Amino acid sequence: MALKILVSAGEASGDLYAASLVTALRGRWPQADFFGCAGQHMRAAGVRSVVDAESLAVVGLVEVIAHIPRIHRQYRRLVAEAARVRPDLAILTDAPDFHLRLARHLKKWGIPVLYLVAPQVWAWRKGRLRSMRRLIDHLFCIFPFEEAYFRRHGIPATYIGHPLASLVRPAASKAEFFRKHNLDASRPVIVLLPGSRKGEAARHLPALADAVARIRRSREAQFVLPASATTGAAFFQERIGSLPIHIMEGETWNAVAHADLALAASGTVTVETALLGTPMVIFYKVAWATWLLGKPLVSVPFYSMVNLVAGRRVAPELIQHRMTGERLAAEATRLLEDEGARLRMKQDFREVAARLESGGNAIRRAADLIEGFVREQAAHVS
Predict the structure, then answer these.
(1) Are 282 and 367 members of one domain?
(2) Residue 332 sits in which domain range?
(3) Which residues, given as ranges, of the chain have pLDDT below 50?
(4) What 3 state SS string does the chain have?
(5) Predicted local confidence at residue 297, as pLDDT
(6) Which of 56, 214, 271, 308 shows its CA 20 to 30 Å from the CA of 162?
């Protein structure tokens, strides 16, 4: 079937999920033409890139302002290509500020919209529910509590499981990883995960660097920092100064799996870390204007998805003013010294993983639903 499918993702995690989905769908429809907003994984999966997803990787209410002209240009470029091609359907992944606007054009042209990774309106900006009801034909949820929530608000939704549950695996053994990066097996390894976007990584680095310096005063730990494709290693090498932090590219899952502890920015990487079973301290900081504007809109007990899925605080969270080098170092030292606490956290993470796996293979489930949707649409036409 020579379908034309618009696929769009706005950041690294969505790019990975969408690429896996494209690969699964191409196995069913080898002649399909996939095009849209693509990152490195989607391009590798054969998606024709109209817009580079890396150009949209900005977070925060205030932080995004300086990037609005560029993002708008990319948005108009994608809208123009969708108008020209008139795809048979669109698969939009996360990035609701960008994609709900795009969906208005798509629905106006009669193009069905399937949405992968639900906007987190259950946490904030509930006003989006009205437009989601109008614009989304089916919503694929990756967290177990979301399906009932969205169905209750009149949005067709299915929990498919979390894509990472079947994807996250180290590609090398601990011995191979340590040998490659000249790490000492007798000393603990702490992996630093400052965020996949340059803006958030830059905000987090000063406190992380302070924490590294403090931890080194009391123990001989080793520090590794796997740079995301969005930031690249050079970004960090220019900023860490003389601190002994081993920076690498493309090995996040290896680094996390084989570390004793992770200091992780709240986001997708905390889910990856929990699935890999590595104890962690979660942190996040935004511009103060964003914090003051956004905090009253947030209505959840925790900021990290790991704690939300668990339904309790299984990993410490150091958010905004609590994210300091001193507190990061204190939490890291406490966990390194308390084997019982680390073991309890690992057990809690196994519980989180079981919940995220409960929907089955998420990508296969999404591909099945999309195939069924296309068949149903074709039956209506005929």
Answers:
(1) no
(2) 174-357
(3) 58-63
(4) CCCEEEEEECCHHHHHHHHHHHHHHHHHCCCCEEEEEECHHHHHCCCEEEEEHHHHCCCCCCCCHHHHHHHHHHHHHHHHHHHHHCCCEEEEECCHHHHHHHHHHHHHCCCCEEEECCCCCCCCCCCHHHHHHHHCCEEEECCCCHHHHHHHCCCCEEECCCHHHHCCCCCCCHHHHHHHCCCCCCCCEEEEECCCCHHHHHHHHHHHHHHHHHHHHHCCCEEEEEECCCCCHHHHHCCCCCCCEEEEECCHHHHHHCCCEEEEECCHHHHHHHHHCCCEEEEECCCHHHHHHHHHHCCCCCCCHHHHHHCCCCCCEEEHHHCCHHHHHHHHHHHHHCHHHHHHHHHHHHHHHHHHHCCCCHHHHHHHHHHHHHHHHHHHHC
(5) 63
(6) 56
Residue 62 is predicted with a pLDDT of: 45
How many CB atoms are located within 10 Å of the residue 46 CB? 14
- State whether 253 and 193 are in the same domain: yes
Q: What per-residue confidence (pLDDT) applies to 55?
A: 66
145 and 197 fall within a common domain: no
pLDDT at 60: 46
How many structural domains comprise the chain? 2
> Domain for residue 123, yes or no?
yes
pLDDT in tens, 240-251: 888 999 999 989
Rounded Cα gap, residues 229 and 132, in angstroms: 31
Average pLDDT score, the chain: 91
Residue 48: CB atoms within 10 A of its CB come to 14
Same domain, 193 and 322: yes
Question: What was the pLDDT predicted at 292?
Answer: 73
66 is a domain residue = yes
Query: What is the CB neighbour count within 10 angstroms for residue 236?
Result: 21
Q: Are 141 and 79 part of one and the same domain?
A: yes
291 and 307 in a single domain? The answer is yes
Tell whether 150 and 185 lie within a shared domain. Answer: no
Q: Can you give the CATH number for the domain in which 178 is found?
A: 3.40.50.2000
* Residue 169, in any domain of the structure: no
Indicate whether 296 and 226 sit together in one domain.
yes
Say whether pTM exceeds 0.70. Answer: yes
